[in-house]
Structure formats: C-alpha cells, structure tokens
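Run log, item B.
One chain of 222 residues. Sequence copied directly from the ordering sheet:
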Amino acid sequence: MAKRWLALAVLIGCAIGTGSSANAVPAAPPAQPADNPPMPVHYRVDTTTRVAKLGSDLVVGPGRLDGQFVIVPGSNPLRVEITGDLKLPPADSYFVTFGFMPATATITVTSTAPVQSVLQNGTLTATTRLTFALSNSKVHGVPLDVGPNCRTDEVSIVQSGPFISPLSTGTVAGTFTIPPFRHCGVTENLDPLFTGLVSGPGNTLRTVLTFLCGGTATCEER
C-alpha cells in the first residue's frame, strides 16, 4: 500500500509540475481505472485571519480536513479535484476596539459545506463556505450577553497557492468580506455593534495544509 501511494504521489507531482511550466509540452494524463475510485486524503489545517477593521490577527487551529481526491479522466493539463470536511476548534481572540478599549471573545469558525478544491498547473484553488460565531465576549473586562446564536451570515472564501500534489503540504491564501452579524444580544440588540466593529471587506485568510496521510480516516499527526 505504501509503495502504491508513493508511486501515485510521484506520478501526480510530475504531471502537475510539467503542466505548470510555460515551455513544457503537457504530459498526457495517466490511465484511469474504469470506475476511477476516489482516494482518501487527510490534512492538518492551520489558519490565520487578518481582520481589517480591527487590525489584528485571529489564529485558528490546528484543525482537520478529511476528504478524498480524484484525477479527472482525460484532463490535460492534469486536473485533480479534492473535496473534504473541514473542522476547526474555537479560538480565543484579543483585540482593541475604538483604538483604546480591549475586548476578548471566543470565535468559532464553522464550515457549512464540504471544501471544494481543484489542483491544476501546480496551483491549488480551494473554495470554503464559513460562518463566524461569537461567544464569551467581554469589553474592558465587562461581559456582554451575546446569546447562543451570535454569528455572521455565510461567506464563500476562495484561496489559492502553489501545490505539488494532493499528497503534499502547501499554503493557500485569499481575501474576503466578513458579513454582518445576526442574532447577537439577549437583553439588547448587539448586531450593529459587532457589525460595525468587525464586518467589512479587505480581510485576509492564510491556510497551511499539512499532509497527514492517505487511505485511512484515523491517521495521526506526524
């Protein structure tokens, strides 16, 4: 089994690497089995989000991306499609509001749909649909009762970056707009507060995908 995965990694890496060269003649895609079964693959996920309005970073992870990939038959340049379920742990954040007032909160980033990725010509392009939820919020040490459902609308984020093969490690990045917050506040409506402080364009997301293993759903980090 190990030899099979090694051979597959070399084959895909060579095909994608050849396709990414401007002067190279694209290699013919490898022959596919009749049913072209998907291959399991698993990554560790570490993300850093730069919140433009606050001028601060939110570090989330490590999380997991457990999925599968398939080589598209007849694709030239070689096209590999990767799908997977993303799970990220909650993250504690610290930032300064209004330029002087410290605030803390727990941010939960939830994937609302499977991650859809395409690897072609040495570039991985991944589309992720997420919501951002707030809890345990305090401003200047004073708790804010945000309630259990304080979160943004869903946002679709596209990230891309160089990638050798689905059995490798790499980094993708992109920019996105944080949507408005909804259902925040128990005794008062806090939606305008969080929307005004956090929501808006120009935010960046950088994600490191560390290959863990292929072929098993129980692989451990190395």
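Observations after the first pass:
- Confidence is low (pLDDT under 50) at residues 1-7, 18-34.
- The chain has one domain: 2-213.
Flagged for discussion on Thursday.
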